[in-house]
Amino acid sequence: MRLFAAVLPPAHPLGQLAERMGRLRELPDADRLRWTGPDDWHFTLAFYGEVPEEALPELQERLGRAAHRCAAYELRIAGGGRFGDRVVWAGADGDRPAMRRLADAAEAAGRRAGLPMGEHRPYTPHLTLARKRTGRLDLVPYAAALAGFSGSAWTVTELALMRSHPPAPGVPGSRPRYEPLARWRLEG
Ligand code: 2AM
Fold first, then answer.
1. Given ligand 1 and candidates 1, 2, 3, 4, which is best to mutate, with the most ligand atoms within 8 Å of its CB?
2. CATH for 37
3. Measured in angstroms, how far is the CA atom of residue 44 from the centroid of ligand 1?
4. What is the per-residue pLDDT for 120?
5. What is residue 119's predicted lDDT score, i.e. its pLDDT?
6. Maximum Cα–Cα distance across the chain
7. Predicted model pTM
8. Low pLDDT (below 50) residues in the chain
């Protein structure tokens, strides 16, 4: 099963972001992007890829320990950017060093559980809003429309282990579905 660890923002900031996203969806060519929605929105901490069923107990055990060591922290959804001409995302502000420590701990949990974690990349907290479908598209105006956005702060108190169910093959507009499998309180 395809798994990742994430921070799930509460409803209020998600609603604020949804409201701002309305502006982005009015930009020219917005229909050439595949948009995500508030039900999908999360900040990925670590991506585990395909995890065999038998590795799940140890991963959960390790994630529980990671959450036990990491402290709750303040976060807000703020600003945004793009990954090249492929992805438009909203960013995070607040205690980013604490977010980074949690991401490192979630990645280490995967590695210690024996999962092939790939290379360690610089962590960019982001919440994916849209992905390009095909062709060339300048995403600069979309990123610019997020400049100055700052949602309400909240305290991140939980780490979630998420399962990603792939989109139905051959169904136009079908999107992956994300399901929380377990959550741990941050107790450090
Ligand atoms: P994305 O939003 O930048 O696409 C579920 O797919 C979550 O895992 C998404 O947040 C996705 O990030 C992330 N994800 C998917 N594949 C990944 C990969 N190879 N490396 C890192 N994160 C990945």
1. 4
2. 3.90.1140.10
3. 7
4. 76
5. 82
6. 48
7. 0.95
8. none
**Mutational test site, ligand 1, from 47, 87, 89, max ligand atoms within 8 Å of CB:** 47
For residue 105, give every residue at least 6 positions away whose Cβ sits within 8 Å of its Cβ, in sequence order, or none.
66, 67, 69, 70
8 A C-beta contact, residue 153 and residue 12: no
Does residue 16 come out as left (phi exceeding 0), alpha (psi in the -120 to 50 range) or beta?
alpha
- The pLDDT score that the predictor gives to residue 12 is 98
> 110 lies in which domain range?
2-169+176-185
> Which pLDDT value is given to residue 122?
82
- Ligand 1: distance of its center to the CA of 46 in Å? 8
Backbone angles phi, psi at 149, to 5 degrees: -70, 135
Query: Residue 27 carries which DSSP code?
Result: S
pLDDT at position 170: 87
Bridge partners (DSSP) listed for residue 47: 4
The first and second tokens of residue 20, run together, are 């701002």
How many domains does the chain divide into? Answer: 1
3-class DSSP assignment, residue 155: strand
Q: Whose CA is nearest to atom 23 of ligand 1?
A: 47
